[in-house]
Design goal:
With 98 residues, this protein is mostly helical. It has helices at residues 2-33, 42-61, 71-97.
Length: 98
Amino acid sequence: MFIFGNLFHAIAFILDTILTIYMWIIIVSALISWVNPDPYNPIVRFLYSVTDPVLRPVRKRFTFSMGIDISPMIVILVIMFIKYFIIASMFDLASRMK
């Protein structure tokens, strides 16, 4: 059973790393949006192309008339929930299988 424990541990670690990187990409994209960047810059285009598919449905669902886009905060909270509930559960399951 230790092989499955190691497998779950590896999958949980990879998912945790991917979610952490994506969370930082969302933070950088939100910070860049405050300074009105050049839309033809390749870095800006990459950031928007990676984050817009996730942020767009959240923006449609949670629209506020205050003029503040809170969709990055909502997505980051969802990522944190996934990390602290699902990924932590996978780590616990992996340690119990060893």
